[in-house]
Design a protein that fits this description.
heterodimer; A: 306 residues; mainly alpha; two-stranded antiparallel sheet; two-stranded antiparallel ribbon; 10 helices; B: 269 residues; alpha+beta; Immunoglobulin-like; 6-stranded mixed β-sheet; 5-stranded antiparallel β-sheet; 7 helices
Amino acid sequence: MQIYLPIAEVSVNAFLLLGLGGIVGILSGMFGVGGGFLMTPLLFFIGIPPVVAVATEANQIVASSFSGVLAHFRRRTVDIKMGMVLQVGGLIGAALGVVVFNYLKSLGQVDLLVTLCYVVFLGVVGTLMFIESLNAMFKSKRAGGAPAPRRQRGWVHALPFKMRFRTSGLYISVIPPILVGVVVGILAAIMGVGGGFIMVPAMIYILGMPTKVVVGTSLFQIILVTAFTTMLHATTNYTVDIVLAVLLLIGGVIGAQIGTRIGVYLKAEQLRILLALMVMVVCVKLGLDLLLMPSELYSLGAAGGH
Amino acid sequence: MIRSLLLSLSFAILLLTSAPPAQAATQAATQATTEEVVLGLSQDRVAITANFDGSEILIFGAVKRETPIPEGDPLQVIVAVSGPNSPVTVRRKEKKLGIWVNTDSVLVDSAPSFYAIATSAPFNEVISATEDLRYRVSIARAIRSVGAAMHIRGAQDFADAVVRIREDEGLYSLRENTVAVDQQTLFRSAIEMPADLTEGHYTARILLTRAGQVVSSFETDIDVRKVGLERFLYAMSREQPFLYGLMSLAIAIAAGWGASAAFRLLRNN
């Protein structure tokens, strides 16, 4: 069934969109990532104009994250306090990110920088997570299912403004979470994603939060940041396509529910290794696009745009 | 079925016995000529609805003349439908430091969003190069890139790229021998419009030629417009962007909550 998208001005198959939303939704629920880093390139691929894809994707992430976070709320795996602190940083970061984005746009190389950002961050995050979770898996096998090693007590614990995060069982300074929020916010605005794929490992490895809490808290934090991004795109670029968003989110919210339930049955190490593999696949794909000669050297853009 | 119905209607116009179904206009051609076009369109507006998946416009008409059919080369017909013009930035990738990046860019001042030509014979036989230049008929001529940056090597390649990319997308097309001409008097053609149509004022141009020279031309508008929900959402996103953004978020939150609640019910039962 073909459907004409009013803002994107293209006609696409409705079931294709529902299916894409569903698959990305499942991943979103399982890993606590918004799924934007997968969905946005997929939307480019089916012919949605990039500006519309990025803006609409932000709106869709709000839906799937909200759906996912409710399930986590009931299981009490959301550290609301930590989420709030991260959001403060996230909003500052998103605002900064938009400024950076517009500056790069005026230089005319924003596409390249966005892709490079993807390749570098996905590559580093994916590889680190993959190695770490492989190690953790072998260790837990040898030790007969011993709990994961305790968090290291490093520089994170030496900073002032300490705050107690009961759900995470942490007593740390608020500076690292705010900084993490800012960095993720900047990247989220530049790359047009929720930023979960950076947030999740940052929470585990920098803040030392327990994996079970990380997913819910990440979803919680993503909601506000992507809602902010949606409003920004809707009011400045008029590129949020509500019909596209609805189709994606119908598939997405259902997928997220399924994903959250699958996530319960998987071990933390298994979850991490799957996420790491997925991140690396996307990274390799984007990297090849930069390295291989494109079939069409020319591209068209609206005049005055980036 | 519709096609045959419209075809019979076109004959009706010719015989001037009944009023045409849609817009059928006559207009004295501007040139001092004895031949002019009487035109009918199967539709003078294209409504883009939610399930719009392309449209076919039937263009038909007749040649009205007071004098006998001139001797010599037969009458040929060109039908060209073009979408609204807008400037386009064309970028070219080059390999720099091992990766492919956009380097040069050229602004093409004006290119139609859609351009379809149908002719009654091979293009070169229908119209001469000078007439093509004058009337801007061929796809290459319809694109204007005045003052293309001269410092960039092969600026023409950029204009060619616009044509190539849009031809691949089905937005530009040249279909030779697709206008049927009967007795040098009746003509008809169908123009396919793809699903990925942008809205605006489209124009349909009909040129009559003999021996490559344009003897008469006629132009009419086709209104391509979003209707219903499509119209409402599009207008709202431009006129009330803040409200539109809030609405998008509200729908997202509602859908997220709804799915969560629905699944909980399913699981509890």
